[in-house]
Please model this.
Amino acid sequence: MKVDVVQKVLKANDDIAKLVRARFEEYAISCINMISAPGSGKTTLIESALKKGISGVRVGVIEGDPETTRDAERIAKYDVPVVQINTAGGCHLESQLVLQALDKLPLDTIDLLIIENVGNLVCPVGFDLGEKSRVAVVSVTEGQDKPFKYPRLFQTANIVVLNKVDLLPYVPFDVEEFKQGVHGIQPDVPILHVSCTHGDGVEQWVNWLKGQVDKPTNG
Amino acid sequence: MHELSIVTSLIEQVEQICKEQGKDCVSKIDLRIGFLEHINTETFLFMFEQVKEGTCMEQAKINLIIEPIKIRCRKCLNFYEPEDSIWICPHCNEVGGEIVQGTEIILESIYFDDN
Model:
């Protein structure tokens, strides 16, 4: 006997992501999901924004890592609410983990929730976390071929951050080929050049984050 | 390694359907995997072997159908399957477009032994 089903296999994750999204709507929170390889500078990008300040926007952060609370400790120094999720070796965050983390955050005091996913260019991509926007981060030391090798991430990203551009004089990174790769998949996605060390592009990064918030608070 | 999460999710879904159908075990399933899901089929089947024990899928065969990427050109609206990682419409040379196939994992059908 054959039974036709036609059901998405990650339906459970998608269903919980809907619950997460409903919580965000209830509290008027805009959520972004940052995805990159390990060591591309996701945490430093968050720190740079917090250091510069996103005027009128109250930030909360969820950190995802296989082990340790190191990233959450870095973020906590900026006096913003932060929760560390340890996946115990798991290679990506799932909506269930985010839903649980929301219980530990003061949601009524957050306008922008930044989720830093586990460093990985493949696994996090298929798991909706209830985010409004997705940020793909690539640092110039990783090589310009990433969009060709990992098209799904670049296809689903709302913005691509090319990080550590201060190292461009020292590494053989072909910016034009990188752009061609990204825009060959998504012609209109913005690519932001950032150096957190020298401060290049940090203002644009902060402005983009601010633009994600629907209703900036007055205070 | 996202294959493990997907296998676990798949088995939970099939168990639920078994319950609804009043069946104890499944003989085969058809599973469509979009190319852009980046599933390593060997890893996927290996993970399945590790976790199927004691579930309704212990004896089940998995028929994997890999679906290629299909794009709808945003300019001429024709459909095409891109040949490499830069998506260029073969009809009008426009770059990029809307993905209409290749990004989902779909449990298509379940087969039960007739007895």
